Amino acid sequence: MILKSFLAASAMALLASTAHAGDVRIMWYSDGVEGEVFQDLINRFKAQNPGINVIVDNVAYNVIKEQLPVQLEAGNGPDIARVTSIKDLAKHWLDLRPLVANAAYWDENFGQQADWMRPDGSNQISGFMTQLTLTGGFANKTLFEQAGVPLPGPKATWEEWAAASKKVAASQQIPYPMALDRSGHRISAPNISYGANYIGADGKPAALDQGAKAYLTKFIDWAKDGTMSKDVWVSAAGQTYRAAADDFINGQVAFYYAGSWQIPNFAKKIGNNFDWVATGSPCGPAACTGLPGGAALVAVKYTKNPKEVAKVMDYLASEPVIKEFSERTLFLPAHKAVLAKGVDFKTDSPLVKDALNKFVEATKTTSDMAQKMPGWRWSDTVYGAIVTRVAQAIAGEMPTQEALTRIDADVAAKVKASGL
Amino acid sequence: MSRVTQFIFRRRGGKGWHWTDIATWVWLIGGLIIMFGPAVWLALSSFKTPAALAEFPPSILPYVSQQATVQGYDKPLTLFNATMPDGSTRVLAEVRRVGTVAQMVDPKAPAEIIKVNINQRTPVRSVSFSTENYVQPFLHFDFFRYLWNSVFVTVTATVITLVVNSMAAFALSKYEFKGRNAAMLVILATLMVPLSVILVPLYSIISTLGLFNNLWGVILPTVATPTGVFILRQYMLTIPDELIDAARMDKASEWQIYWRIVVPLTAPALAVLAIFSVVWRWNDFLWPLIVLSRRELYTLQVGLNIYSGELNVQWHFILAMTVVTMIPVVLVFIFLQRFITTGIAGTGLK
Amino acid sequence: MSQSQPATRPLAPAPKMSAASLALMPVHFIMGLADKPLRALQKAAGIGGMATFFLAPNMLIFSIFVLLPIIINIVYSLTGGTAIFLNERTFVGTDQYAHIFNCSNYLDPRSCQEDAFWTAVGNTFWFVVIQVTLLIVCSLITALILNRDLMARSFWRAVFFFPVLLSPVVVGLIWRWILQRQGLLNYILYPFGHDPVTWLSDRTVAFAAAVGVSIWAHMGFYTLILLAGLQAIPKDLYEAAEMDGTRAMRVFRRITLPLLMPNLLVVVVLALIKAVQVFDEVYVLTGGGPGTATQFLTQYIYETGFVSQPRNAGLAAAASILMGLVLVVLTLIQLGISKRNENKGKR
């Protein structure tokens, strides 16, 4: 009996690699509840289209980041995937333009981000953004109130936030006034506010300019003198991402710079412990910008069933589906019509609604430079080098000046090694 | 009673406490705490709610805030111990909190709102095991499918490992042939190449062979373990050659010698290899993660990893599923633990 | 060792096996069926040919899935670009090695262009030296204690062996939860008026934690090997020493240590190899931080080949080849040791 089922299983295991006609496999990662919401929507699609078998493979984000590129490079991979390195991998995406029911609908509603996920110079429709994100700050309003420090206004600079947060920290006995995630993407927002431009004339990375150097130097000093939480930056080596969210949730930080994606997380974990507000991005000399980003759902060109894939994509990109998905996940949608008509986020917390509205509002002050970053092929390379070296400087392994020159050298070496 | 204590604290020499006796028990009790403590804490933490997990100071046991339904309010309200201005404490339910002031009511007299500074109140909490962490993944996550895949990979890989490695070890220990030393040298040289170092080329091979998204793609690269060949060969070297010569005299075929004589005599070493193979394959993580990207093929270790997102990790689910995946290994160990020591004692490792 | 006293090992555990042998019946049947064709094979190939037959399955799998990737890796290290398949990669000669060895001062890793590699080499070296030494001391002490006349010895043995059963990821996770800011250690120290500390953000503490956790995870295995050796030392040697009134330390130095030497050597070599490969548990525990204080070679190779943007499989391969060379040296030492043991056994 056991032997029999074993033989059956081994036969099945051998067959498992062959795809059935009509199968559409979606590789999906989740930060919170979006996986369940997505599965719900897919189940509805399957009920309407019995001929198409859509299978959602939930994976860890690391699989998307580290393993999926290798699979694609080898011509494997799922039919549809939710990815963040959408520009780097653009050559693997399927052009949906000839396959979707109404290409004009896609151009109209997703046109603004379409360039983030297609090879340079094409008019390909690769997919759409499942969510837009924007970096921005959060303040622990209760701590500010207890300390009797007024919240800095909408045009406040990074210095003003630092000064106010330090007062709060001193009076409330919390370990860190401010925290910023260990992430090149996060730290690039203030860099750009300080006037940084990473993109050289030839489209390849330029050396760090005065703007970037000014903020990075300030940031390293802040981390060393305790204005910024050092813990999160020294908690890993290399370009590993680490969030400082738990410190904010525990009320250990007065001002936390992260982004819109933290809102559902805060709603769940902070609960009624204290009041928090989204503050938008503090200003630098050049701008008050956050950095946009997000995850996209794209079709992979190695699929055996392009027609079915297009059908699934058409369904998922349709206005009611996008609207429902955003409302239930508390994600900012990327769909023009949905945005224009307004989204009724499903939450009973006024804090969450205010925060989401604040981020929608903050998109207006996003600078042109920041808008370009998600669609630039080398942004991850620059982010990676910045995180690695800045963290080393904070840990006291090298002086700030050396870290800055090493960032340039690292980026140059990586560009050269990639052979592009 | 005294006989029991005597039995427990059996000492060197018998009379009095020699310093080594004290050192022994300090080491053993310390070891017990350090070795088991962390795992026990992990198990207890797996029953905490996400909010409780992020909290400092942490509690040993999982707690939740108590709630009460108060007349005039739709939703249950959280209960607090509030210190009154006169120094007395009362149990109050919080209606809402505005800044640093909490508006509270007495559940028995819900009409009157009492304003309390938030530093003057602490939540009323009770121990509660958040079984949600276990139930939710079982509902959303195809647990039994993953379990079956894990069992299939572990058992198949172990059986193949035992057969293939023991055959090779037999050839390398009981035959003289050209290239024997070369084969042994190559096997030993690769003994220490860690998998994480050859991931990319191995992936290109698996992909070429069409073993991508296939359980055999996980099984095959792991079965020809150099360690297994090494351990078994060392053990087989201790089997006297006379036994084999005698069997040949009796017209036994080489296969029979292997199967009827050498394998039974190598049983303790095979048991050790079997146990290690089970532990290794059950815990394999990095390689299955790369090869298996379809959910019907996930092993448990890959399955529990889906709770690591880009920006957030759902620790409560990961902890709960980690505890679940630990159970089978611990069971195998409890049942087979006597083989482990006797087996290692007998292998060429001595 | 064992050859000198083969009788102490139960050769045929026959009486206990009756239930097991019943279960093995079908297996015996299948293996019996294989005998006939194999006899024919033996007739054709001769006894020497049978050696090849026994070796073949293992070597075939081994060649495809272990040896071939290593060879491909050597070729990888001579190529560049981001492609996966060899035919799509561009040949760059020894550029990758030149990049690694591009240093202005060979004694200072910071002066190298690829400083991350050399820092990892330095970290790995110190990790190996410290971890292996402490690991062996701890395992030896534990083995000596478990060798005493204890109550419930198998329970205590299990206590120390238990972490060996856990996956490296779980080991790293458990300890991260203990050492982090909101962790158990701070909670234990809290009542003593100790402010919460982020233990892993201190270079020395993080390194010590990496060493400690890897000892915690692997100690049980080596303890058992040493315990097996201790139990094989004839009791009468100790009795004789006690009659002579020899001091305990002297007994340990003159009897225990020399007779335990073969086991100790095996433990040293296995522990060395394992320590050079250190990765998973430390990666989960510290991520290599703070700065690069706990970034080790395997992590460097994995991150260069898989994580960094753009991925650089060529550079990762070159680094792994250099690491492989070191490992081969260690293997040769091990080979020498086991050879010497074999010769001793024969004498």
TrEMBL record, chain A:
<protein>
    <recommendedName>
        <fullName>sn-glycerol-3-phosphate-binding periplasmic protein UgpB</fullName>
    </recommendedName>
</protein>
<dbReference type="InterPro" id="IPR006059">
    <property type="entry name" value="SBP"/>
</dbReference>
<comment type="function">
    <text>Part of the ABC transporter complex UgpBAEC involved in sn-glycerol-3-phosphate (G3P) import. Binds G3P.</text>
</comment>
<keyword id="KW-0813">Transport</keyword>
<keyword id="KW-0732">Signal</keyword>
<keyword id="KW-0574">Periplasm</keyword>
<comment type="similarity">
    <text>Belongs to the bacterial solute-binding protein 1 family.</text>
</comment>
<comment type="subunit">
    <text>The complex is composed of two ATP-binding proteins (UgpC), two transmembrane proteins (UgpA and UgpE) and a solute-binding protein (UgpB).</text>
</comment>
<feature type="signal peptide">
    <location>
        <begin position="1"/>
        <end position="21"/>
    </location>
</feature>
<dbReference type="InterPro" id="IPR050490">
    <property type="entry name" value="Bact_solute-bd_prot1"/>
</dbReference>
<dbReference type="Pfam" id="PF01547">
    <property type="entry name" value="SBP_bac_1"/>
</dbReference>
From TrEMBL, chain B:
<feature type="transmembrane region" description="Helical">
    <location>
        <begin position="146"/>
        <end position="170"/>
    </location>
</feature>
<keyword id="KW-0997">Cell inner membrane</keyword>
<keyword id="KW-1003">Cell membrane</keyword>
<feature type="transmembrane region" description="Helical">
    <location>
        <begin position="215"/>
        <end position="236"/>
    </location>
</feature>
<feature type="transmembrane region" description="Helical">
    <location>
        <begin position="315"/>
        <end position="336"/>
    </location>
</feature>
<keyword id="KW-0812">Transmembrane</keyword>
<keyword id="KW-0472">Membrane</keyword>
<comment type="function">
    <text>Part of the ABC transporter complex UgpBAEC involved in sn-glycerol-3-phosphate (G3P) import. Probably responsible for the translocation of the substrate across the membrane.</text>
</comment>
<feature type="domain" description="ABC transmembrane type-1">
    <location>
        <begin position="147"/>
        <end position="336"/>
    </location>
</feature>
<feature type="transmembrane region" description="Helical">
    <location>
        <begin position="21"/>
        <end position="44"/>
    </location>
</feature>
<feature type="transmembrane region" description="Helical">
    <location>
        <begin position="182"/>
        <end position="203"/>
    </location>
</feature>
<comment type="subunit">
    <text>The complex is composed of two ATP-binding proteins (UgpC), two transmembrane proteins (UgpA and UgpE) and a solute-binding protein (UgpB).</text>
</comment>
<dbReference type="InterPro" id="IPR000515">
    <property type="entry name" value="MetI-like"/>
</dbReference>
<keyword id="KW-0813">Transport</keyword>
<keyword id="KW-1133">Transmembrane helix</keyword>
<dbReference type="Pfam" id="PF00528">
    <property type="entry name" value="BPD_transp_1"/>
</dbReference>
<dbReference type="InterPro" id="IPR035906">
    <property type="entry name" value="MetI-like_sf"/>
</dbReference>
<protein>
    <recommendedName>
        <fullName>sn-glycerol-3-phosphate transport system permease protein UgpE</fullName>
    </recommendedName>
</protein>
<comment type="similarity">
    <text>Belongs to the binding-protein-dependent transport system permease family.</text>
</comment>
<feature type="transmembrane region" description="Helical">
    <location>
        <begin position="257"/>
        <end position="280"/>
    </location>
</feature>
